[in-house]
């Protein structure tokens, strides 16, 4: 008998873990659609097709579910940061990396659009979020430095930290900008693609060649389940 598939949030493929995984998938969808504060455990149980008492068997509180989802986000981000590139860092490599970053933002968009509610529900996540933000900024600096070394960017090394901060700001606050400036709450994939275009606009003055367009995959299609 073959090995059962490991889920996106860890664990083995037993019935109990599959149920817990389905609950987390539903929880992620509802958090993304309605926000953390507006999503009740009763709504999560109903959408998962189970009784609320059965939900408590797997997760005693909404906070427990949020922590598991955040674990999954951290793991996905760590994989993105540790991705190995070919010996030469090509424009296609950077474009694909940028697209993967924005897909991750889209998949966990409630963390970027409603972080205040997240921290109110689970204050311990604030320090983890700050650490991730710092890692993200360092990763962007490293990526831009690599692009400069490979001749993709014509920029003085002393200007890379400032450019990295601007890239980080657009990546982190793009969804909040859409809401604050345009009143957009129901996010679509085209909004994500617009964010990618804004990031590329930051690089245009320094690029020595054009970046290829990367088609965005369906936003909520999880290939690892």
What does this structure look like?
With 225 residues, this protein is an all-alpha fold. It folds into two domains: 18-58, Arc Repressor Mutant, subunit A (Orthogonal Bundle), CATH 1.10.10.60; 69-203, Tetracycline Repressor, domain 2 (Orthogonal Bundle), CATH 1.10.357. Helices cover 65% and strands 0% of the residues. The chain has ten helices and no strands. It has helices at 15-34, 41-48, 52-58, 62-81, 91-107, 109-113, 115-121, 125-149, 160-182, 189-203. Helix 1 (15-34) crosses helix 2 (41-48), helix 1 (15-34) packs across helix 4 and helix 4 (62-81) runs antiparallel to helix 5 (91-107). It is elongated, with a radius of gyration of 19 Å. Mean pLDDT is 84; it is low at 1-7 and 218-225.
Rg, please? Answer: 19 Å
Write out the CATH superfamily name of the largest domain.
Tetracycline Repressor, domain 2
Q: How many helices does DSSP assign?
A: 10
Distance between the termini: 19 Å
Global outline: elongated
What characterizes the major β-sheet?
Answer: none
- As for the CATH topology of the largest domain, it is Tetracycline Repressor, domain 2
How many β-strand runs?
A: 0
Strand share of the residues? under 5%
CATH class of the largest domain: Mainly Alpha
Number of structural units classed as domains: 2
Order of helices and strands: HHHHHHHHHH
Which regions contain 5 or more consecutive residues with pLDDT less than 50? 1-7, 218-225
- Using the 3D structure, state the CATH architecture of the largest domain: Orthogonal Bundle
Structure class: mainly alpha
What's the oligomerization state?
Answer: single chain
Mean pLDDT: 84
Tell me roughly what share of residues is in helical segments: 55-70%
């Amino acid at each position: 008998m073959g090995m059962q598939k490991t889920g996106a949030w860890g664990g083995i493929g037993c019935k109990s873990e599959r149920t817990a995984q389905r609950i987390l998938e539903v929880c992620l969808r509802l958090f993304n659609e309605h926000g953390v504060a507006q999503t009740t455990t009763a709504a999560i149980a109903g959408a998962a097709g189970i009784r609320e008492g059965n939900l408590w068997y797997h997760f005693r509180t909404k906070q427990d579910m949020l922590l598991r989802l955040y674990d999954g986000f951290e793991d996905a981000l760590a994989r993105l940061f540790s991705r190995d590139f070919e010996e030469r860092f090509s424009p296609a490599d950077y474009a694909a990396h940028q697209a993967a970053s924005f897909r991750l933002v889209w998949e966990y968009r409630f963390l970027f659009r409603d972080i205040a509610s997240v921290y109110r529900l689970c204050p311990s996540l604030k320090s983890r979020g700050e650490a991730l933000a710092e890692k993200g900024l360092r990763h962007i600096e490293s990526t831009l430095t690599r692009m400069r070394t490979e001749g993709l960017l014509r920029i003085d090394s002393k200007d890379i930290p400032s450019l990295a901060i601007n890239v980080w700001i657009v990546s982190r606050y793009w969804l909040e900008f859409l809401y604050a400036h345009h009143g957009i709450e129901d996010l679509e994939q085209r909004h994500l693609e617009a964010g990618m275009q804004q990031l590329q606009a930051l690089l245009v003055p320094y690029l020595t060649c054009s970046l290829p367009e990367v088609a965005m995959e369906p936003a909520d299609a999880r290939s690892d389940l």
